[in-house]
Write a structure and sequence with these properties.
It is globular, with a radius of gyration of 23 Å. The chain has 2 domains: 36-265, Alpha-Beta Barrel (TIM Barrel), CATH 3.20.20; 269-384, Lyase, Ornithine Decarboxylase, Chain A, domain 1 (Beta Barrel), CATH 2.40.37. The strands form 2 sheets. Strands 1, 11, 12, 13, 14, 15, 16, 17 and 18 form a 9-stranded mixed sheet that branches. The protein is of the alpha/beta class. 31% of the residues lie in helices and 24% in strands. Strand 14 (318-324) and strand 15 (332-340) form a beta hairpin.
Length: 406
């Protein structure tokens, strides 16, 4: 997409607004598929927690993707978007047995990461095909909040608890069809990923009826010009060779599964916001926009960086700005960032806004959530309307005056 297209969409649909480029999502999907083309059975399950708009789910479904879900609500959204139950993978954490039973009744693939729940589920449903999430105790990920495979993580069944796991499976006679791991997000060193894969291969030898191995995802995308990213092609070459060799050793051709979220949609997303005020203080020039961390929390939450451009005047003289929001507390998107000279009314574009941006938005300060637009075949399609005051009131129940009177 070009800057002029984004400016036009901001004018057409209003700001703040999220825009997603369908062509970029397609190219990322094709890139991952091509990197693992030497594997006979490859399945890509989109991790929909990254961006769960139904239109995006439908788009990925047309590309051939399955879904990776982490809640019963995500499962329901996937079914609503037209996915067949067998194309949906359910990997919860810390949920009740009751929720897992509800999802099981929907016919989707269950993935369990807790010995207690595994035993309870296996006792009641020994014939239901189940996947097990292993914690390989491998530290990976660009931030402590997104590193999920280490020894202190709440995710997965410790690889050191395999004897307990095997005993539960033998006692319940349950049907284990897959083994899963996910080490974390923003993986740079593919050797760490390959090391964790070896742990998964060793764990898989304990189960005789496997149909697939799920290696999670966590591939890093570039956040700025010349930024480093996961070398998908190199990983594809090395892991494909090792996976195919393991299948021969195992005596059966298994399916290799990945569950990318950020990798597919992050670079496809743009967040557009209008500059409300340019404020000069004794030491800083603030560009205050018509948004805040209620719409894009990652810079405040993770310290993440999103490249910011003034798409209204992209070729203006660069100055240093601190870009801030309108939330009534510290609400900073960027400190002393070089951006083309900003004037009130200009549209700023935040790149890499496709993953974990709208999906983490809130109504903090009673602000409305923004709209979402899908750019496809050179045209913008509204896929979520701007919220209104009526949306804020929905589900709230006012008390009768007689109750509130002092």
């Amino acid at each position: 997409m070009q800057s002029k297209d984004l400016v036009q969409l901001a004018e057409q649909f209003g700001s703040p607004i999220y825009v997603y480029d369908a062509e970029k999502i397609q190219s990322q999907y094709n890139r991952l598929s091509k990197a693992f083309s030497k594997v006979n059975k490859l399945r890509i399950n989109y991790a929909m927690k990254a961006l769960s708009n139904v239109a995006i789910l439908q788009l990925l479904k047309e590309m051939g993707s399955g879904l990776d879900t982490v809640s019963i609500q995500e499962v329901m959204l996937g079914l609503h978007a037209g996915y067949e139950p067998e194309k949906i993978f359910y990997t919860p954490n810390g949920v009740s047995l009751e929720e897992i039973e509800e999802v099981n009744a929907m016919g989707v693939q269950i993935n369990i990461d807790n010995l207690s729940i595994l035993e309870q589920f296996g006792t009641k449903y020994p014939h239901v095909p189940v996947c097990i999430r292993i914690n390989p105790h491998v530290m990976a990920g660009g931030n402590a909040n997104i590193s999920v495979g280490h020894i202190d993580s709440k995710f997965g069944i410790s690889v050191h608890q395999l004897p307990h796991l095997v005993r539960i499976v033998e006692n319940t006679k349950m049907n284990i069809v897959g083994i899963h791991m996910h080490t974390g997000s923003d993986i740079l060193d593919i050797e760490v990923f390959l090391y964790a894969a070896e742990i998964l291969f060793d764990a898989a030898k304990n189960f005789k009826n496997l149909e697939f191995l799920d290696f999670g995802s966590g591939f890093k995308v570039p956040y700025k010009k010349d930024d480093i990213e996961t070398d998908i092609e190199e990983l594809g070459k090395k892991l494909s060779k090792r996976f195919n060799a393991f299948c021969v050793e195992y005596g059966k051709e298994l399916t290799l599964i990945f569950e990318p979220g950020k990798f597919l949609v992050s670079e496809a997303g743009f967040f557009l916001a209008k500059v409300n005020v340019v404020k000069q203080t004794t030491s800083t020039v603030f560009a205050g926009i018509d948004s805040g961390f209620n719409h894009l929390i990652r810079p405040m939450f993770y310290g993440s960086q999103h490249h910011i451009e003034n798409i209204s005047h992209p070729k203006g003289k660069e100055r240093f700005y601190s870009v801030v929001g309108y939330i009534c507390e510290t609400d900073t998107f960027a400190n002393n960032r070089r951006i083309s000279e900003i004037k009130e009314g200009d549209i700023l574009c935040f790149r890499n806004a496709g993953a974990y941006c709208f999906s983490m938005a809130s109504n903090y300060n009673s602000r409305y959530k923004p709209a979402e637009v899908l750019w496809i075949k050179g045209e913008g399609h509204l896929i979520r309307a701007h919220e209104t005051f009526e949306d804020l009131l929905k589900n709230q129940i006012a008390l009768p005056l007689a109750v509130t009177a002092v």
